[in-house]
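Consortium newsletter contribution from the modelling node. Members have asked for a concrete example of what our holo predictions look like. Here is one, prepared for the zinc ion complex that several groups have been discussing at recent meetings.
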Amino acid sequence: MENQIKPQYVQNDVVVTMHYQLKVDGEVYDASEENDPLVFLQGHQNIIPGLESELYGLKVGESKEVQVAPQDGYGEIDKDAIQDVDRDEFPSDIPLEPGVELEMKDQEGNEIYARIVSVSKDRVKLDFNEPLAGKALDFRITITDLREATPEEIEHGHAHYESEEEDDE
Ligand code: ZN
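And here is the predicted structure:
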């Protein structure tokens, strides 16, 4: 690869590499692995808006704590996304217990996810909300690398990795 002048700080159309830890309700919910940081293209909604907007101007090596309100994260809980379904509609091999996560297909064949909230004699209450909907998110992030995006990455709206050279989305 040719020598590039590295960007000095996070700005639009820069590929950002960062480590993160996400706490929800005071507990660690998710974190990047030591050898597997998050890589994304800043300014293209690759990550949730409330986090992306707080990264501008950060330099390599800098850390920041970012609190993201639900409306800037995974949204508020949608009561219409909690629905009762007839128990008969579930295949018998699915364990119908609260907390079980289900992968389903909608009418267009897209994969959708739901969690069982409760089970009664003939009804199952399903929650189709994103699991982090309605939650305040506490991130701690550390920027570990910055580089200019390629024209192709900017056109695609996401970062490319070496293993993704064939990617033509
Ligand atoms: Zn691409």
